[in-house]
Design brief:
With about 400 residues, this protein is an alpha/beta fold. The chain is about 45% helix and about 15% strand. Among the domains are: about 1-110, Helix Hairpins (Orthogonal Bundle), CATH 1.10.287; about 110-275, NAD(P)-binding Rossmann-like Domain (Rossmann fold, 3-Layer(aba) Sandwich), CATH 3.40.50.
């Protein structure tokens, strides 16, 4: 019996401390109020004459507010009042301390980069660090209107001043920050990537502890390591990865990365176009800049228009989308893993062995997120495609990072 009693006490004072304290306080309040009522209601000059009076007196007493409109006049009542006051001071103190510790712990967890991963769902994970990181994160919020601050998760090896600087930004103060190496499986799991809407891996050029800047090969190796880990713990999640050396993209494709960002190649191509005086660099900049009215994006194609001609889709857009201009189709859009699984199932539907081999070969050579600009009207829009559009954006809905 003693062991059972000790276990019951440990259970009550452990995780169930607050419910136990509240139950104890309510019980003491009602019981003592009842006995005070029984002791007082017949006494001369008594002002506690009903059970309701006793309950009201009990509330004032255990909260120690000293209101004094109801007081016991008998010796028994005063002894009970002392017991209730002592119980109230202890239990209210415990509850106050528990509430204070909760908010203190929450503030410490946020400051140290401790995130409750069980609450993360449909969030956006950013792995790595860049200069002017706050601008990048604000732009991510701009380009994803349904994304809130609390759904933005950053995984990076940061010092506390960098964390404080991010949280000082009004649009980033409630974002989630996980402090640690982003290529570590333990830290990635804390970000719950399997439930994320998308994961973006940055080419992190943060210097080593000795101040040495990592080489492009080192940076890409961390990106590839992160992608490989995500392919095993978050299969099916959309992953975009920035890479410096284009020759390393084969490893990202093996890791089912949906979008590969060739940042150095983009810079080189823009410079080459600018050298010809064609104005392409300005066009690309305006289409990608969140502070301009034109916006290059992709949109989901309605199900009835799948497996229809591009001409039908173009007519539909012209009739219903006055603020959007259709410029092409993005084939095999979405997660590389899901795309290849769907293509593989389709390839295996035939009973012809030769056709099956041809289909399997085409699956192997399949390029995910393949843009096709301005195809012929008889081009068939296949399943898994998205529309590439230039849309008009109201600038009042977009906040510049410098103004935020």
């Amino acid at each position: 019996m003693g062991r059972i009693a000790s276990r019951a006490i440990a259970w009550a004072l452990g995780k169930n401390l607050v419910p136990t304290v509240i139950l104890f306080l309510l019980t003491v309040w009602v019981v003592i109020s009842w006995f005070v009522f029984r002791a007082e209601f017949r006494a001369p000059d008594a002002n506690i004459t009903t059970f309701g009076d006793a309950l009201w007196w009990g509330v004032v007493t255990f909260l120690t507010v000293g209101y004094g409109d109801r007081v016991p006049v008998t010796t028994e009542g005063r002894v009970l009042a002392g017991i209730l006051m002592t119980s109230g001071v202890v239990t209210v103190g415990i509850l106050t301390a528990k509430i204070s510790s909760y908010f203190m712990e929450k503030a410490l967890r946020e400051g140290r980069g401790i995130v409750d991963s069980t609450r993360l769902k449909n969030h956006f994970v950013v792995c790595g660090w860049k200069e002017e990181m706050h601008q990048l994160l604000v732009h991510i919020l701009d380009f994803n209107p349904g994304l809130t601050q609390t759904q933005l998760v950053l995984v990076a090896n940061l010092m506390q001043p960098a964390v404080d600087e991010l949280r000082a930004h009004p649009r980033l103060k409630e974002m989630q920050i996980i402090v640690g190496d982003y290529f570590s499986e333990i830290n990635l799991k804390r970000a719950a990537p399997e439930r994320a809407r998308k994961v973006m891996i940055l080419a992190d050029r943060t210097p080593h502890a000795n101040g040495q800047v990592p080489s492009a090969t080192e940076i890409d190796a961390k990106t590839i390591m992160t992608s490989m880990t995500l392919s095993s713990i978050a299969r099916g999640t959309l992953v975009a990865a920035e890479i410096l050396d284009p020759k390393m993209d084969q490893y990202l494709k093996l890791a089912s990365v949906s979008e590969i960002i060739y940042s150095r190649e983009y810079n080189r191509l823009l410079l080459v176009n600018a050298s010809g005086g064609t104005g392409v660099a300005n066009i690309i900049f305006d289409l990608l800049d969140p502070n301009t009215s034109a916006h290059l994006t992709t949109e989901t194609i309605p199900e009835p228009l799948m497996n229809k001609s591009y001409g039908d889709l173009r007519k539909e857009f012209s009739a219903k989308n006055s603020e959007r201009v259709l410029i092409g189709i993005l084939e095999n859009s979405g997660s590389r893993h899901n795309i290849k699984e769907l293509a593989l199932r389709k390839a295996q539907r035939t009973t012809d062995v030769n056709q099956l081999l041809t289909n399997l070969r085409s699956v192997k050579e399949l390029r995910c997120n393949q843009p096709v600009f301005h195809p012929d009207d008889d081009y068939v829009v296949s399943e898994g495609s998205m529309a590439i559009v230039i849309s008009h954006r109201r600038l009042g809905h977009v906040v510049s990072p410098s103004a935020a």
